[in-house]
Amino acid sequence: MSVSDKLKISITPLTKADIDEVDEIACKAYGAHHWSKDSFYSELQNKLAQYYIARLEDNTIAGFAGYWCIIDEAHITTIAVAPEFFRRHIGEALLKAMLEDCYSKKVKYLTLEVRESNIAAISMYQKYGFQSFGVRKGYYQDNNESALIMWTENIFWDKFKNKYEENVSKLNEIIDIQ
Ligand SMILES: CC(C)(COP(=O)(O)OP(=O)(O)OC[C@H]1O[C@@H](n2cnc3c(N)ncnc32)[C@H](O)[C@@H]1OP(=O)(O)O)[C@@H](O)C(=O)NCCC(=O)NCCS
Question: Exposed e or buried b for every residue in 25-36, given b needs 16+ CB within 10 A?
């Protein structure tokens, strides 16, 4: 792939002005059961939370993600990419942005819940070293689906960090992240 073929994105903190566009992506990516706009507005007031958007060169928002940071743990609350941009490594780039934050804040562990049928998300998390350590039965009220509870090991441990750095190095070859 030549340098010019690389998808270019910028990852920046979510602002109020982005919420309408983010809400449209949430609706497309998550279907009927997604956060309301009010949830995004209130998350912007949450001091424990950090949210990001991924923007394309033409200024379109292609995805968003966020987490809560509680002492040395981060809980990923959401991550979504507009379906027309699936499999272009934007999800990974958003995950990387959150992991970089965790490294700089000395957060040791990341966790999240994911629908047990969500192969795309589970595969992405597994690629980055998350493992399933439990199930919350019937966690999702819309269809009573169970959630896998996924955790990283300590992200400062060599095994995790080496895998992370290998993934990031490959990611940087295929996508230009500002
Ligand atoms: C999960 C999601 C964010 C992934 O975003 P994406 O930008 O399409 O994913 P990426 O291109 O960054 O893929 C990263 C890795 O995830 C895995 N992956 C992504 N989509 C996959 C799919 N459909 N099937 C299998 N693995 C998949 C692969 O391991 C991939 O790495 P690879 O391309 O080297 O094989 C996206 O599918 C999405 O928005 N889904 C709807 C919302 C959602 O379910 N969010 C998760 C809530 S927990």
Answer: bbeebeeeeebe
For the chain, list residues with pLDDT below 50.
none
Helix (H) or strand (E) holding 176: strand 175-177
CA geometry: angle at 144 spanning 90 and 67, to 5°? Answer: 35
The closest residue, in CA terms, to atom 17 on ligand 1 is: 124
pLDDT of residue 154: 98
What are the sequence ranges of the domains in the chain?
3-177
CATH annotation of 3-177: 3.40.630.30
User: Among this protein's residues, is 164 annotated catalytic?
Assistant: no
What is the predicted pLDDT for the residue at 162?
98
Report the pLDDT value the prediction gives residue 3, as an integer from 0 to 100: 52
| Annotated active-site residue in 113, 139, 145, 173 | 113
- Burial 128-140, CB ≥16 within 10 A → b, else e: bbbeeeeeeeebe
In the residue annotation, 125 being an active-site residue is answered as yes
pLDDT at 2: 52
Q: Which residues line ligand 1 (CB under 6 A)?
A: 29-30, 79-81, 86-92, 112, 114, 118-121, 123-124, 127
Q: At 66, which amino acid appears? A: G
